[in-house]
Hints:
Keywords: Acetylation, Coiled coil, Isopeptide bond, Nucleus, Phosphoprotein, Ubl conjugation
Protein name: Ribosomal L1 domain-containing protein 1
Function: Regulates cellular senescence through inhibition of PTEN translation. Acts as a pro-apoptotic regulator in response to DNA damage.
Number of helices: 12
Family: Belongs to the universal ribosomal protein uL1 family. Highly divergent.
Helix content: 40-55%
Shape: extended
Order of helices and strands: HEEEHEHHEHHEHEEHEEHHHEEH
Largest sheet: 4 strands, antiparallel
CATH architecture of the domain at 31-267: 3-Layer(aba) Sandwich
Radius of gyration: 47 Å
GO cellular component, one term: nucleolus
Strand order of the largest sheet: 8-1-9-10
Amino acid sequence: MPNIPMPAQVEKPVAAASTSKAPAPLPQNFSKDQAKKAVKALLAHHVKDKERQEEKTLISKDEHIWLVINTRRMPTKKSNKPSRINLPHPPLPPPPATSVCLFSKDPQRQYKDLLHEQGVKFIARVVGLEKLKGKHKPYEARRALANDHQVFLCDESIMPMMPKLLGKIFFDAKKQPLPVNLKKKDIKTELAQAISSAFFHESLGTTSTLRIATAVHHNAEQVLENLLAALPAVVGKIPDAWDNIKSVGIKTSGSMLLPVWTVDPAKLYSAEDVDVKVKSKAEKKRLRGEESDDSMMTASEDESAPSSKKSKKNGKESKQAEPVAVPAPSPKKAAASPKAAKQAVVPEPKAEKEPKKVLAGKTKDALPAKKKTAGAAGRSSVKASVIGKKKQ
């Protein structure tokens, strides 16, 4: 692979203020041989995949190699400012192979003149805030801007305004602007360091990614060196470092994840996590038991309630059915007042009427009488006349 010179050969930069966390050394069970096998297998897969794409399309896209880290727990906080990761080999080919765009404050012409004075020729375009709010505000204009360049740099003083101005187009394409300090005296070195470094964006999920190489412009040894240099730096920025890491792998945008390192299953969950899980299960069972007891109690109460109501109703009916005991009148009072004797006699209960027969939902009495039609009346008169003639 031909070595393309960088726009400015500078020494390895010192870590920025956002990279204050110390790198986490590789664990003892980390195998470099396994990482080397994964890198070689990924590059071999890319060569075959590229040949298939060339048969279908005329222009094939450059595939980036991503370092993928899966964690056990999700972070509680997220920083919009990415962390700079210094790599032995730039993850992207240097300009002009990589087109670079710079977002600056207004006036835009002032920063263009500043770049021209310091001999910065690898910035393809400078866009000010006024242009972002006006010319590039429509969706199509922002999408065209994202497709025209591979790397976007931004003055760190206006970095918080970028998510609202750029929208999700840049973030979905993994082209978030990278912060640079345009107040430094040597702007050329600052911009060259930003282009040759990788930037780690914290995620609110359990998966974090970092671009470490390009499959076309890097060989297996360079990819392995970038992998071994980036992994400790990225893990050091994750809370709890290696204790929170579940697995590490590498992939391209068109391939599956190839494992590089996986945590021991016996150490996947700590004793505290197991105790918490056991306690939560016991609490769930206890709560379920209480709920079932409550439901049984309520069900028994519901069942007993109608029976008590029925018994009350039956009691009322029995009371109504029992004859009232009336004391027998004395003979003197009975002879003196015959009306009182008549009132004292208990009337016999009336016999209940037999239920009417129901035919097809209607009682017998409710059925309408059949109406004789004209034809039926004629037939009956004919029959009567015939019978009369026979009798004669």
